[in-house]
Design goal:
By secondary structure, the chain is mostly helical. It contains ten helices and no strands. The longest helix has 23 residues, at about 155-180. The model has no long low-confidence stretch (mean pLDDT about 95).
Length: about 220
Protein backbone atom coordinates (compact mmCIF):
# COMPACT_ATOMS: atom_id res chain seq x y z
CA UNK A 1 0.00 0.00 0.00
CA UNK A 2 1.34 3.43 -0.94
CA UNK A 3 2.06 5.78 1.96
CA UNK A 4 -0.33 8.70 2.17
CA UNK A 5 1.30 12.05 2.95
CA UNK A 6 -1.70 14.03 4.23
CA UNK A 7 0.27 17.25 4.63
CA UNK A 8 1.53 17.19 1.05
CA UNK A 9 -1.88 16.31 -0.36
CA UNK A 10 -3.52 19.10 1.65
CA UNK A 11 -0.95 21.60 0.40
CA UNK A 12 -1.32 20.53 -3.24
CA UNK A 13 -5.12 20.60 -3.14
CA UNK A 14 -5.20 23.98 -1.44
CA UNK A 15 -2.92 25.34 -4.16
CA UNK A 16 -5.23 23.92 -6.83
CA UNK A 17 -8.29 25.56 -5.26
CA UNK A 18 -6.51 28.88 -4.86
CA UNK A 19 -5.40 28.76 -8.48
CA UNK A 20 -9.07 28.43 -9.42
CA UNK A 21 -9.97 31.50 -7.42
CA UNK A 22 -11.27 29.61 -4.42
CA UNK A 23 -10.84 30.03 -0.70
CA UNK A 24 -9.25 27.52 1.64
CA UNK A 25 -9.49 26.84 5.37
CA UNK A 26 -6.00 26.30 6.73
CA UNK A 27 -7.15 24.42 9.82
CA UNK A 28 -9.48 22.07 7.97
CA UNK A 29 -8.15 18.59 8.83
CA UNK A 30 -7.47 15.81 6.36
CA UNK A 31 -9.95 12.94 5.90
CA UNK A 32 -9.32 9.89 8.03
CA UNK A 33 -6.82 7.74 6.17
CA UNK A 34 -7.08 4.73 8.49
CA UNK A 35 -10.68 3.70 7.93
CA UNK A 36 -11.17 0.44 6.01
CA UNK A 37 -12.25 1.16 2.43
CA UNK A 38 -14.79 -0.67 0.34
CA UNK A 39 -13.62 -3.03 -2.36
CA UNK A 40 -14.19 -2.96 -6.11
CA UNK A 41 -17.18 -5.29 -5.96
CA UNK A 42 -18.95 -3.12 -3.39
CA UNK A 43 -18.24 -0.03 -5.48
CA UNK A 44 -19.61 -1.73 -8.59
CA UNK A 45 -22.81 -2.78 -6.82
CA UNK A 46 -23.37 0.76 -5.52
CA UNK A 47 -22.79 2.15 -9.02
CA UNK A 48 -25.36 -0.28 -10.41
CA UNK A 49 -27.92 0.80 -7.83
CA UNK A 50 -27.22 4.49 -8.47
CA UNK A 51 -27.65 3.97 -12.19
CA UNK A 52 -30.90 2.04 -11.73
CA UNK A 53 -32.41 4.58 -9.35
CA UNK A 54 -31.30 7.41 -11.65
CA UNK A 55 -33.51 5.99 -14.38
CA UNK A 56 -36.55 6.73 -12.20
CA UNK A 57 -35.62 10.42 -12.37
CA UNK A 58 -35.68 9.97 -16.15
CA UNK A 59 -39.26 8.64 -15.87
CA UNK A 60 -38.55 4.89 -16.03
CA UNK A 61 -41.41 2.98 -14.31
CA UNK A 62 -40.58 2.16 -10.70
CA UNK A 63 -41.86 -1.40 -11.19
CA UNK A 64 -39.33 -1.98 -14.00
CA UNK A 65 -36.45 -0.68 -11.90
CA UNK A 66 -37.56 -2.69 -8.89
CA UNK A 67 -37.64 -5.86 -10.99
CA UNK A 68 -34.23 -5.18 -12.55
CA UNK A 69 -32.64 -4.65 -9.16
CA UNK A 70 -34.19 -7.85 -7.82
CA UNK A 71 -33.26 -9.96 -10.84
CA UNK A 72 -29.65 -8.79 -10.59
CA UNK A 73 -29.36 -9.61 -6.89
CA UNK A 74 -28.92 -6.01 -5.75
CA UNK A 75 -31.73 -5.72 -3.21
CA UNK A 76 -29.26 -6.02 -0.36
CA UNK A 77 -27.41 -2.94 -1.62
CA UNK A 78 -30.39 -0.61 -1.27
CA UNK A 79 -30.46 2.09 1.37
CA UNK A 80 -33.58 2.75 3.44
CA UNK A 81 -34.53 5.78 1.35
CA UNK A 82 -34.10 3.81 -1.87
CA UNK A 83 -36.29 0.99 -0.57
CA UNK A 84 -38.96 3.52 0.33
CA UNK A 85 -38.95 4.92 -3.20
CA UNK A 86 -39.15 1.47 -4.78
CA UNK A 87 -42.18 0.69 -2.61
CA UNK A 88 -44.07 3.58 -4.19
CA UNK A 89 -46.21 3.79 -7.28
CA UNK A 90 -45.05 6.15 -10.02
CA UNK A 91 -47.78 8.69 -9.30
CA UNK A 92 -46.85 8.89 -5.63
CA UNK A 93 -43.28 9.99 -6.25
CA UNK A 94 -42.76 13.64 -5.29
CA UNK A 95 -40.86 16.13 -7.39
CA UNK A 96 -38.33 16.44 -4.59
CA UNK A 97 -37.73 12.69 -4.67
CA UNK A 98 -37.19 12.82 -8.43
CA UNK A 99 -34.80 15.73 -7.97
CA UNK A 100 -32.86 13.84 -5.31
CA UNK A 101 -32.58 10.85 -7.64
CA UNK A 102 -31.43 13.03 -10.52
CA UNK A 103 -28.44 14.15 -8.43
CA UNK A 104 -27.35 10.51 -8.30
CA UNK A 105 -25.75 11.18 -11.66
CA UNK A 106 -22.94 13.13 -9.99
CA UNK A 107 -22.20 10.38 -7.46
CA UNK A 108 -22.26 7.85 -10.27
CA UNK A 109 -19.76 9.93 -12.26
CA UNK A 110 -17.44 9.99 -9.24
CA UNK A 111 -17.65 6.20 -8.95
CA UNK A 112 -16.95 5.89 -12.68
CA UNK A 113 -13.76 7.88 -12.09
CA UNK A 114 -12.86 5.79 -9.03
CA UNK A 115 -13.24 2.65 -11.13
CA UNK A 116 -10.95 4.03 -13.82
CA UNK A 117 -13.77 4.19 -16.36
CA UNK A 118 -13.11 7.88 -17.00
CA UNK A 119 -9.79 9.70 -16.83
CA UNK A 120 -10.67 12.89 -14.96
CA UNK A 121 -13.02 14.12 -12.25
CA UNK A 122 -12.54 17.81 -12.92
CA UNK A 123 -14.50 19.75 -10.34
CA UNK A 124 -15.56 22.48 -12.77
CA UNK A 125 -16.73 20.19 -15.57
CA UNK A 126 -20.07 18.40 -16.00
CA UNK A 127 -20.73 14.69 -16.23
CA UNK A 128 -19.40 13.28 -19.48
CA UNK A 129 -21.77 12.10 -22.18
CA UNK A 130 -20.11 8.69 -22.15
CA UNK A 131 -21.50 7.82 -18.71
CA UNK A 132 -24.58 6.03 -20.05
CA UNK A 133 -22.48 3.80 -22.29
CA UNK A 134 -20.44 2.65 -19.28
CA UNK A 135 -23.48 1.22 -17.50
CA UNK A 136 -25.90 -1.63 -18.29
CA UNK A 137 -28.77 -0.60 -20.55
CA UNK A 138 -31.86 -1.05 -18.41
CA UNK A 139 -34.18 -0.21 -21.28
CA UNK A 140 -32.94 -3.42 -22.92
CA UNK A 141 -32.86 -5.28 -19.60
CA UNK A 142 -29.11 -5.77 -19.87
CA UNK A 143 -27.79 -7.66 -16.86
CA UNK A 144 -25.13 -6.48 -14.44
CA UNK A 145 -22.89 -9.50 -15.07
CA UNK A 146 -20.45 -7.92 -17.53
CA UNK A 147 -20.19 -4.74 -15.48
CA UNK A 148 -19.45 -6.67 -12.29
CA UNK A 149 -16.83 -8.84 -13.99
CA UNK A 150 -14.83 -5.73 -14.93
CA UNK A 151 -14.98 -4.13 -11.48
CA UNK A 152 -11.80 -2.47 -10.26
CA UNK A 153 -10.70 0.55 -8.25
CA UNK A 154 -7.95 3.11 -8.48
CA UNK A 155 -5.19 2.87 -5.83
CA UNK A 156 -6.17 4.12 -2.39
CA UNK A 157 -3.72 7.03 -2.69
CA UNK A 158 -5.58 8.37 -5.73
CA UNK A 159 -8.93 7.94 -4.02
CA UNK A 160 -7.71 9.69 -0.89
CA UNK A 161 -6.22 12.58 -2.86
CA UNK A 162 -9.48 13.17 -4.72
CA UNK A 163 -11.57 12.83 -1.57
CA UNK A 164 -9.39 15.41 0.16
CA UNK A 165 -9.80 17.77 -2.80
CA UNK A 166 -13.58 17.49 -2.85
CA UNK A 167 -13.71 17.89 0.94
CA UNK A 168 -11.89 21.20 0.65
CA UNK A 169 -13.98 22.25 -2.35
CA UNK A 170 -17.08 21.48 -0.30
CA UNK A 171 -15.86 23.81 2.45
CA UNK A 172 -15.22 26.60 -0.08
CA UNK A 173 -18.50 26.34 -1.97
CA UNK A 174 -20.56 25.92 1.23
CA UNK A 175 -18.88 28.94 2.82
CA UNK A 176 -19.39 30.98 -0.33
CA UNK A 177 -23.09 30.10 -0.34
CA UNK A 178 -23.51 31.00 3.34
CA UNK A 179 -21.89 34.40 2.71
CA UNK A 180 -23.82 35.03 -0.50
CA UNK A 181 -20.63 34.96 -2.53
CA UNK A 182 -20.09 33.36 -5.96
CA UNK A 183 -17.96 30.26 -6.47
CA UNK A 184 -17.59 30.70 -10.21
CA UNK A 185 -18.03 27.55 -12.25
CA UNK A 186 -17.75 25.28 -9.21
CA UNK A 187 -21.17 24.11 -7.99
CA UNK A 188 -21.80 23.27 -4.34
CA UNK A 189 -24.41 20.67 -5.30
CA UNK A 190 -22.11 18.90 -7.74
CA UNK A 191 -19.18 18.95 -5.33
CA UNK A 192 -21.29 17.60 -2.48
CA UNK A 193 -22.76 14.69 -4.46
CA UNK A 194 -19.37 13.64 -5.83
CA UNK A 195 -17.79 13.94 -2.41
CA UNK A 196 -20.49 11.70 -0.96
CA UNK A 197 -19.51 8.87 -3.31
CA UNK A 198 -15.81 9.31 -2.54
CA UNK A 199 -16.34 9.42 1.22
CA UNK A 200 -18.56 6.33 1.00
CA UNK A 201 -15.79 4.49 -0.85
CA UNK A 202 -13.14 5.26 1.74
CA UNK A 203 -15.21 4.23 4.75
CA UNK A 204 -17.04 0.90 4.75
CA UNK A 205 -18.94 1.68 7.96
CA UNK A 206 -22.50 2.92 7.56
CA UNK A 207 -25.09 3.14 4.82
CA UNK A 208 -25.41 5.37 1.78
CA UNK A 209 -28.02 7.46 3.58
CA UNK A 210 -25.66 8.23 6.45
CA UNK A 211 -22.43 9.34 4.77
CA UNK A 212 -20.75 12.05 6.86
CA UNK A 213 -20.45 15.27 4.86
CA UNK A 214 -19.63 17.86 7.47
CA UNK A 215 -17.12 20.60 6.66
Amino acid sequence: MQEIDCVLIKRDNEALIRAHGGEICDWLPSPDQDTPARDAQAAARRALVLNAMLQIAFKAPISVIRQWIASNGLEGELSSSERAILDKDDGDLTEQERTNLYWYIEALWALAWAAGKVEDLDFNKPVGRELASLMPNLRENESSEAFMSRAKLRPRLELFRMTDLYYRLHWWTRTAQLHGEPSGDVSLDIVMERRKALEWLLNDDGSWDDVELST
